[in-house]
Amino acid sequence: MLIQAREVYTKAIFLEFQHQFEQAVELNIKCVTNDGNIFYPVNLDCASKERHVKVQSDNTLSCSCRMFEMKGVLCSHIIKILRDALNIKEIPTQYILKRWTKQARVECVQDMYGSEIQELQQTCRYRSLFLSSLEYQVKLRRVKKPIF
Ligand SMILES: [Zn+2]
């Protein structure tokens, strides 16, 4: 999982994932079935707050800490369930948000002639917006005909 994360995520997101991955090692899990629904209470020790990872009807996992929904990075609780309860060794693709991948950084820029520019700089998004704005301004100038 860590090797995969290092390959796909940007450095900042990889470091956050690595932190969650390391925390997951220490967690304890149980498995509870209630009315056919499966959920996993997860905690560090008796004194820490218990979180619940629930298996949704589409087999995706959600955690009561809501970290994935808020940050787009898997929390230690879901990582723990994936690895130790479900024996999944790779991050399922639905949990890898494209915006946090290195690939998203590469794909984002075209120059004003439509040619692709491949860059790994974070500024490429802003450059793309800047170029779009320039093109828009040029179009506006063409539309506005001089009044004689
Ligand atoms: Zn969680």
Radius of gyration: 22 Å
What coarse outline follows from CA principal-axis ratios? elongated
List the helices and strands in order.
HHEEEEEHHHEEH
Strand content: 15-25%
CA(first)-CA(last) distance = 68 Å
Please report the total strand number as a whole number: 7
Provide mean pLDDT, rounded: 84
> What structural class do helix, strand and pairing data support?
alpha+beta
Low-confidence stretches: none
Bound molecules: zinc ion
The residue fraction in helices comes out at 40-55%
| Count of DSSP-assigned helices | 6
Total tally of structural domains:
2
Main sheet characteristics? 5 strands, antiparallel
Give an overview in words.
- With 148 residues, the protein is α+β, with helices and mostly antiparallel strands.
- It folds into two domains: 2-100, no CATH class; 108-143, no CATH class.
- It has six helices and seven strands.
- The strands form two sheets. Strands 1, 2, 3, 4 and 5 form a five-stranded antiparallel β-sheet that branches. Strands 6-7 form a two-stranded antiparallel sheet.
- A hairpin with a 2-residue loop joins strand 2 (32-34) and strand 3.
- Helix 2 (11-25) packs across helix 4.
- The radius of gyration is 22 Å and the shape is elongated.
- It starts with a helix and ends in a 5-residue tail after the last helix.
- The model has no long low-confidence stretch (mean pLDDT 84).
- The structure holds zinc ion.
- Residues 51, 63, 65, 67, 75, 77-78 line the site of zinc ion.
